[in-house]
Every structure is written in C-alpha cells, then in structure tokens.
Design brief:
Radius of gyration: 24 Å
Bound molecules: ligand BES, manganese (II) ion, zinc ion
Structural class: alpha/beta
Number of strands: 19
CATH class of the largest domain: Alpha Beta
CATH superfamily of the largest domain: Zn peptidases
Shape: elongated
CATH architecture of the largest domain: 3-Layer(aba) Sandwich
Helix content: 25-40%
Largest sheet: 8 strands, mixed
Strand order of the largest sheet: 7-8-10-9-13-17-14-15
Number of helices: 13
CATH topology of the largest domain: Aminopeptidase
C-alpha cells in the first residue's frame, strides 16, 4: 500500500482527482469550511433524513455534480480525536471496499488541524480494511484493489502528516504479518513456519537470525520449555532475531513472544468447545515478528532482539503429567500442577536466556491466561511491570498507538500461592487472580533487568462472526521501541 499526502487543490475538494474521495466531517453540523457544493449536498441529505452527524453514518454519492471523482463518501467523526477519525475512516472504507477503487483520496473537514496521529490512524484503518485471510481459503473473495491512499492536507497542516503516514504504514505492515501468522491454522503455522517467517523478515531488513532445534534447546538447558515440547512430534524452535540500529554498546530492548502454535492443554486437556481458537496461542510470537517488520521499515536508532519460544502443547505417551517436576534454565525447579499452564513454562526459559544480552528492558508478550480475559475483556491488554518507569513508558506507547493496555498489580503477596512441596515453585495457584499469579511466576525469572509482561489473551484475536487475529499489540510495541530511539 502506498500512502502519500497532497495539499488541498486550489479548487477545493471538488477538484481532487482519484477513484474515490472519502471526506471525514468533524463535528455535529455542516462545517463552514466545507466546499459550497459538498456542503449543500450534505445539508440536503441531513434535511432528507439520510445523514446524521453520528458515528457509523455513511453518505455515498455516485458521480456527484461539481466533483472530479466518480465516488464520493461522507462520514462523520463527532469529535476531533485521532480515534474518532480512525473509526470514521474505517466506516467509510467498509462502505466502498468492495468497489473497484485503486486510488483513494481522504480528506478531513472541520475541527483543528490534523496531527501525525491522525495520519497514522488513517494508515491503520486502511491496513485493517484491506486485509483478507486467504492462505487456506481458495474461495475467499477477491482482495480489495486499493493500492494507493492520498491524504489531502489543509493549509495549516505540516510535514508531520507524512511522518505519521510512514509510521502508520510500517505498523500496518507489521500488523498484517502478525494477523497472517496467527490466523494460519496449527498444521500450517508450526514452530518451523514461525522460524521461516523470522528468517524471511530478517533477510528482508538485514537482521541477524538464529534458530535452535530440539537438540540445541536441550544443550542450552531449557528444561522447562522442552518439557512442554516433549508431548508433540512437531519439532520445537527457539528463535532469536537481532535488529541492530544503534552502536553495539547500546543495551538492547528484548521482546519475548509466546509461540504455542496449538494449545490443547496437554494432559490437563481443554474442553472441545472453541479449542480451535488455541491456534492463536502464538499471538505473542506473531506480534514480535510483526514489530520486527515495522521496525525494519522505520529503522530507528535502537537495538532490538526478538526471542520466540515455539512448540505445541499436546497430550501423548511422552507428554508432561500433573505432578512432574522439571528444571528450568535458571536452575529453579518447577512442579507442573497443570499442564495447561504451559505458556509460563516456555517463557521462563526465554526470560532467563534474555539475561545474556544485558538488556535495557525485556517485554514478554503472551496469550497467557483466560483469567486476563475475565478481568479486562477484549479492549485492554493486561500490563504487568514491577518497574514504574517502564510501566509508564508502555502505557504512553499504548495511548499513542491507540492500542489500549491496563496496568495490573504485582505485589509480592500474590506470589504466595505458587509455593510447592516438591519444587522451588509451582506453575499454578488457585483460580482467583489467575492473570496476576501467572505474571508473578514470570517475575521470578525476570529479576535481573527491567521487565514487563503483556497478557494479550483477550486482545490478540476476536471470536465469533469476526473470528481472526487482530495483530495487537504490534502498535504498542512499535511505539515503545520508537520512543527509545
Ligand atoms: N493459552 C491459554 C490461555 C487462554 C485461554 C487464552 C483462553 C485465551 C483464551 C493458556 O495456556 C492457558 O491455558 N491458561 C490456563 C491457566 C490455568 C491452567 C492456570 C487458563 O487460563 O485456563
Ligand atoms: Mn494452556
Ligand atoms: Zn496457552
């Protein structure tokens, strides 16, 4: 997708040349700054009861008089925020995406000047609208033909729009990578596939990549990760990708992704209903790959290392059993009381592995607990951080990216329930506060650097009619990395 800006033509919106023009009207009445002909059209539509200044209202006009474009769509953003702008663009795109539009012009009328955040929101909305899963669905409808988007800027709007568009386009490309990886079923998106995706992205952007197989993971000493992997014939992979945008002496940001390519629960098997959705249990890993892709495009002056622990969690004659005790890379032994709490078992070894990079910060991203979905639903990702400054940075990134996250507690008292009679720590506690207990488990392995954990169990994918991966939290992570650059 090609995103550019273009100044408002001298002849106003009527003179814009494109296959289609999408006009976002800010406010709750016809803005005085809207061209006379368009203002009259809109005023008439309101008088006829065909348009209201409310979200999700669309006015489509074919070959409007006084306009160069064949297709005109008007939508309303009741307030001037980038969030409202994004929602309005999404609504307008939904109305025209089946049309034969290749080049779309977008303009915003009324309200204050646009900022880079509006431009970024436009790219995000376009990326979301044109993505279509087709890899295992030959009968999928043809992809939208949209390839070029021009943001028409007003006189008072500056070069920052171009920067916002570029950032938004890079994030949208990263989100697409994450959605596509996570949407692919477990028999396609295997640990080996994730490694090949990591290699592809690394090659495209000149990053370094290492992939470890079962034997090498054993040699490193990741006994906890391997314990989860041992129940499946599908070979596990530990993936290391390095983006070097700054001097070697600059401590890296390490992103750690949970890459369970299918989570059956193992011997503590899950109920059958909705078990298919556990193919999305590598959403954290997918978001690490997507963020690397976005960073590769933007090339910030930072060092970033992506770590992905990838395997399946299946029951078998060789699978771990409740009560088994394993030795993690950190040396701590773990009593596996529930084999379905496998995410923390693979992440703990990746977190210990991260120590060798002497990181400035480590953030793990995981579809870790159903309890997090109960706590926060599908809007906010759960943010857990012992480090106040890091928590504040991540919340700011979350706001800037319009990728909501909510901070959760990590008081030591929550860790009490993980005491075990037979090992240094148990992998589960009681149901209450399950998202926090999981984070407390991880915290034991992340004491040597500033660390945060994002539980994206409720936000990495959607269920129901719109079932599919969201690509979250690629936006949050990319903004976090950029702010450190
Ligand atoms: N991948 C799941 C978490 C999950 C469940 C995400 C449902 C989204 C929707 C994770 O591996 C898991 O099974 N967690 C258990 C932990 C429990 C056994 C302590 C859970 O949440 O039930
Ligand atoms: Mn599980
Ligand atoms: Zn899981």
């Amino acid at each position: 997708m090609d995103f550019t800006t273009q100044p408002m033509p001298a002849g106003g919106l009527g003179a814009v040349i494109a296959d289609a023009l999408l006009v976002v009207v800010v406010g709750t009445s016809v803005p005085p700054s809207l061209d006379k002909t368009l203002g009259a059209l809109l005023g008439d539509a309101v008088a006829q009861g065909d348009f209201e200044f409310k979200p999700n209202r669309v006015l489509y006009i074919h070959r409007p008089a006084g306009c160069q474009v064949a297709r005109l769509t008007l939508v309303c953003a009741p307030n001037p925020t980038p969030t409202a702008f994004k929602a309005a663009v999404a609504c307008g795109l939904a109305a025209i995406k089946a049309f034969g539009v290749t080049a779309l012009a977008v303009a915003r009328v009324g309200g204050d000047a646009m900022t880079d955040a509006h431009a970024e929101a436009l790219a995000a909305a376009v990326g979301d609208a044109v993505y279509l899963y087709r890899h295992t669905k030959p009968s999928a409808p043809a992809a939208p033909r949209l390839t070029r988007v021009v943001l028409v800027s007003g006189r008072r709007e500056s070069a920052s729009l171009a920067r916002g568009l570029q950032r938004g386009a890079a994030i949208a490309a990263g989100v697409e990578v994450a959605r596509e990886c996570a949407n692919r079923p477990g028999n396609h998106a295997t640990p080996t596939f994730l490694a090949s995706e990591a290699r592809r992205i690394a090659k495209q952007y000149g990053m370094k990549v290492e992939v470890f197989d079962r034997r090498q993971i054993e040699k490193i000493g990741m006994g906890s990760f391997l314990a989860v992997a041992q129940g499946s014939d599908e070979p596990p992979r530990f993936i290391v990708v390095r983006y070097e945008g700054a001097a070697k002496s600059k401590a890296p940001i390490v992103l750690v992704g949970k890459g369970i390519t299918f989570d059956s629960g193992g011997i503590s098997i899950k109920p059958a209903a909705e078990m298919d959705e556990m193919k999305f249990d590598m959403g954290g890993a997918a978001s690490v790959l997507g963020t690397l892709r976005a960073i590769g495009e933007i090339k910030p002056k930072v060092n970033v290392i992506g770590l992905i622990a990838a395997c399946e969690n299946l029951p078998s004659g060789r699978a771990i059993k409740p009560g088994d005790v394993v030795r993690s890379l950190s040396g701590q032994t773990i009593e596996i009381l529930n084999t379905d709490a496998e995410g923390r078992l693979i992440l703990c070894d990746a977190l210990t592995y991260a120590e060798r990079f002497k990181p400035a910060a480590v953030i793990d991203i995981a579809t870790l607990t159903g309890a997090c979905v109960v706590a926060l639903g599908h809007h906010h990702s759960g943010l857990f951080a012992a480090d106040e400054a890091l928590a504040a940075e991540l919340l700011a990134a979350s706001r800037h990216a319009q990728d909501p996250a909510w901070r959760m507690p990590l008081d030591d008292e929550y860790g009490e329930v993980l005491k075990s009679h037979f090992a240094d720590v148990a992998n589960v506690g009681p149901r209450a506060g399950g998202a926090i207990t999981a984070a407390m488990f991880l915290k034991r392995f992340a004491a040597k650097y500033p660390w945060a954990h994002l539980d994206v169990a409720g936000t990495a994918w959607k269920s129901g009619a719109a079932k599919g991966a969201t690509g979250r939290p690629v936006g949050l992570l990319t903004h976090f990395v950029l702010a450190r650059g």
